[in-house]
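Subject: for your reference before the review

Hello V.,

The reviewers asked for a structural picture of the protein, and I figured it would be easier to keep everything in one thread rather than splitting it across files. Below is the amino acid sequence we used in the manuscript, unchanged from the supplementary table.
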Amino acid sequence: MPTPLPSLAAIARVPHDLLAAAVALCLDPVALPVLLQALDLDLLSRLARGPATLGELADGTGDVALEMTLELGRGFGLFTLCDDRHGLTDLATTCFLATSPLRLLGLVDRHRRYVAAIAALPDALHSTPRADRRVWSQQADQGAQADYFRARAGFNEASRDYFRDTAALLARAHCERDLAAHRVVCDIGAGPAAFAAILKSAAPHLQVHAAEVTYKDPAYLATTAADLQGLEVALHPVNVLHEPLPPAIDLLTANRLFSGLGRDGAEGWARRLHAALAPGGTLALVDFFATGEPAHDRSVAALVALWMAWNRHELQRAPIVEAHDDRRAWGWNPPWRCDELSDLLARVGFRDVRSRSVVPPFALVEARK
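And here is what came back from the structure prediction:
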């Protein structure tokens, strides 16, 4: 049974600086190995039971690896030290325990792959081609897209914990939204429907829909339905570019969608989203958007650099030999800026477009129809 999702109220209670620091730690290729080592040594769960000395933690062996992890982890904000007894910081207890109120272990595990990959970044900066994102656009027919997502079935299932544990970061953008003003919400590209479930729990009156092409996989759909544990979220196995969404949607959300789109395919998506929304309704996009704020954009750059390094690392480890290898589409796709996305949304008919940083590298762009 999956870990219970946090409530929207619990998400709102976590201080912004603490949550931003937790995500920043996962983006730091120097700090992340220390966090991973602490988790692998079970240090966080052991210290969650109470402060302990180095000797107690090492069972008298004086393990250098343990001492290094505690010392460096203290520098990175994970541990405290008082009277020779080590303890956990609020950062560690809030985000990095299995029982944490805003558990981010799925994000940590997802980023584990970047530790070895970061060494490939210099080569990536020299050798990365431009990405081919046609399969994510109306340039690809429904059959080609169906083949693509069938091939991604293993990746999607393996990413379930990542998407569940980061749903709170997406929901953070909606903590101050008046959900009582809405009646029908639909989340596009909903994955395991964790984000949709948080909204439904926060506002039981909402009619909540989750649209996801991967739901066409019966096994993925069944697991997602079981994970909802009876919560009333309607799951729709649809390809949004080619198939209709439910009617009367007055809050349409799409998270981590536009970061996967090329500039030549994004307008088709924007027009589909505009058509799906009821007049007067709100579109809300939470994604890895650059805002123009230096601290936020540094976080976006760090994440995209990790992606590029990992792509290059994987291609060095196992070069492409087959003509239909999906990795041929990998490459550079510049992160979207809020201002250019605002221009795109206005061009297809949206109004009152506005944006802000949520938890770097996540930013919100929203607009009305």
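For the response letter, the relevant points are probably these. Residues 7 and 201 are 7 Å apart (CA to CA). The chain has a mean pLDDT of 96.

Happy to draft the paragraph if you're swamped.

O.
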